[in-house]
Design brief:
With about 60 residues, the chain is mainly α. The protein contains 2 helices and no strands.
Length: about 60
Amino acid sequence: MSKIIDRQNRDLEVNAKLHGLEIQVPKARRSLSKEQKKAMADALEKAKERKASEYGKR
């Protein structure tokens, strides 16, 4: 997710430079809330368990 945001920020800076402008306001990084981090961790754990059950028993 952070790579996407960084890419968008770089694209904005490049477009501004092409038009002779300079972006002076630093962009705040978007961070995930605690609930979002927990949900992503839970989803990752479930995916790992599902992968182990599907591919681990060959």
